[in-house]
Fold this protein.
Amino acid sequence: MGQKKVSYEGLDKLGRERLSPSFFMRDFLYSEIANFYGVPNIPDDPKLAVEAGRRLCEELLEPLQERFGRISIRSAYRSSAVNALGNEKGHNCASNEGNYAAHIWDRKDANDCIGATACVVVNSFVPYYERTGHWEALAWWVHDHLPYATMTFFPKLAAFNLRWHENPARHIKSEIPPRKGTLTKPGMANFEGTHEKEYAEWLSQLG
């Protein structure tokens, strides 16, 4: 799909779309891939991108920020053109089909569902993570408190892909050695119940 033509005024208006009390669409449009290769990171379907992004912000990012303070956005929306280029160049981007209703907010997935992903850092979690390596504390807190679809954790700063989806899989994965792989998903023995013991130490240090 070719990039949809858009005016400067249209892009400026899109950036000012308020997705939730703390977040605007502009917060999610920055892309190193887009900047480095000179490919505009602009939605083909702005209305769908805003709809999916609003659900991500209202249901996941706002509650996370309200509880733990400022979160930083590492990577979020990608246009189909930017994601395809990132996949082609080996920049850790899944195929476009694999990223529909994930990083590509403005395309529905194969099941006609909408969704949106942002890679975020919980700034107040970084000192605890760097001291202990216990990324699971944050994963289990989100699992117990928020309606996430999927999470994938990465080694640097415990950044993680946090996905909202209208049909959530509730699947947590890690790329952090030595505990790479699936932390939990429906059907696993550790999926149900509370996991307070996993994050009690971290919360006690927050004050």
About this structure: The chain has a mean pLDDT of 96.
